[in-house]
Amino acid sequence: MMPRRLPILATLALFVSLTTGVARAAAPPVTERQRTAVARLLGEALTRDDAYEGLRELCDRIGHRLSGSAQLDSAIAWSMRRLRAQGFSRVRAEPAMVPAWVRGEERATLLEPVRRELSMLGIGMSVGTPPGGITAEVVTVSDFDQLEALGEAGVRGRIVLFDAPFTNYSQTVRYRSAGASRAAKLGAVAVLVRSVGPVSLDTPHTGALSYVDSLPRIPAACLSLEDAAMLHRLTDSGARVRVHLQMGAHQGPDVASANVVAEVPGTDLAREIVLVSGHLDSWDVGQGAHDDGAGCLIAMEAAHLIHRLGLKPRRTIRVVLWTNEENGTRGARAYAQAHRDAIADHAAVIESDAGNGAVLGFQLDVRPPAGATAADSAAATRERDRALAMLQAWAPLFEPLGATRMSVGGAGADVGHLCAAGAAGLGVDHDMTRYFDVHHTRADTFDKIDRTTLGRNVAAVAIMTYLLADSPERLRARPTAAHR
Ligand SMILES: [Zn+2]
What is the C-alpha separation between 318 and 384, in angstroms, rounded? Predict the structure, then answer.
């Protein structure tokens, strides 16, 4: 029997050595020193309340933080004081000009067939109505095809209600972002949009729209799911439905704002940077607790823990709290522009902007350059696969947190600008089951933040940041020349 079994064993041994060889090429082995550091980060993150207490202060003492608002300025000053007090180096405000959109007074009143106030929130960046408001008959559509089918004859002079069922965010958000211009093209005078979320307790959602330059700019507001459904039932019943919309929304000239930047210096590879980030701005309702106060505290505390424990990873850790993610990503654009000659020094760029649901893993964003040749695309795919193998080799270190899901996906709206320039992006992959219940609503408040989950999220991001800053290998070696 033995002689016949040997070749099988030999084949197995060869297979094992080959596969571990491949894994080694992608991910250098985790050293004992690194394992110890990971264990200390985990223990420290799960027993400290700094992130939770910091987020409470941000939410309750400052509140929501729209671009151009005094509260955003306060939040910038608050986070810089906090980072300095925690011993970060080179704490600074890097300037960015941001839009100054103001909601103003707003209301939507159903006039016919019954009179009642509607539960609404104007959509960010919308124009206001004329001073006397707009009164018009409502036509309801469930999607853009139905809008096109109505044509100009069915739309001109009317208010269009988009009552699109929530499927997923990226699909459904199109009605909020593009609905106004699509309806204006057919002569609509205003649009109402069913809020973009799966459930509602009379909680309308805001968000940003973008107008097509060549088309008239008409006012746009979101309705609660409840009121969108009611108007849809009324129009379906054949009733004449008339609404009066009054919106004081307006936009002033751009104003000065800033990204907050702070560092934990590296050692022998200090020139290289692992950037960890969240966005400090929010919509002008609620407290911006999940979006994205949590992400800011996760980024700050992850870096703070590494510094506090004196772990001294090789690369510099740079915390960035972005300004103006919600209505322009001007902070991210300004950073990408200001640091355009140093993109290659960014070994990885991390963003947490998906609320405080439990971290399940990380999403890898490695892109070919814009207008890539087939060869560039193939090279980027190879780099991405190599980086993914490196993350997967680290996944067992995240097992205590259940954060082992390493996948390919978007890293975040802000770091996306750096990914486009060739940096390797990592999005923190949060459980988003409940995120869109409160996203961009008055209900995005601190009471919705789970203390234990926040600590675990800080732990996962601290461990990933540390590994990326200390590993001999980078996720992506250097951007190709084609990225520049
Ligand atoms: Zn966000």
Answer: 23
Write down the pLDDT at residue 27. 73
**Which residue intervals of the chain bear CATH 3.50.30.30?**
104-248
List all residues 6 or more positions away from 456 whose beta carbon is below 8 Å from its beta carbon.
45, 46, 358, 359, 401, 403
Q: How far is the CA of 360 from the centre of ligand 1 (A)?
A: 18
Name, in order, each residue with C-beta under 8 angstroms of 261's C-beta and a sequence gap of 6 or more: 90, 91, 92, 93, 94, 318, 319, 320, 321
Q: Which residues are catalytic?
A: 325
Percentages (nearest 5) of helix, strand, coil residues in the chain: 45, 25, 35
Question: What SS3 state is found at 396?
Answer: helix
Are the C-beta atoms of 411 and 475 separated by less than 8 Å?
no
Cα(314) to centroid of ligand 1, in Å? Answer: 30
Structure tokens at 297: 């505290």
CA distance 364 to 350: 9
- CA 86 to ligand 1 center in whole angstroms: 25
Compute, in angstroms, the gap from residue 52 CA to the centroid of ligand 1.
18
From the list 414, 390, 360, 357, the residue with the least C-alpha distance to 467 is 390
Name the maximum alpha-carbon separation found in the chain.
95
Enumerate the CATH 3.40.630.10 domain ranges in the chain, comma separated: 28-101+253-483
Topology, domain 28-101+253-483: Aminopeptidase (3.40.630)
pLDDT at 278: 98
Cβ-contact 120, 246 below 8 angstroms = no
Q: Where are the beta strands (DSSP E) in 237-323?
A: 242-247, 250-264, 269-279, 315-322
pLDDT, tens digit (0-9, with 9 covering 90-100), for 47-65? 999 999 999 999 999 999 9
**In this structure, CATH architecture of domain 104-248:** 3-Layer(bba) Sandwich (3.50)
pLDDT at 4 over 50: no
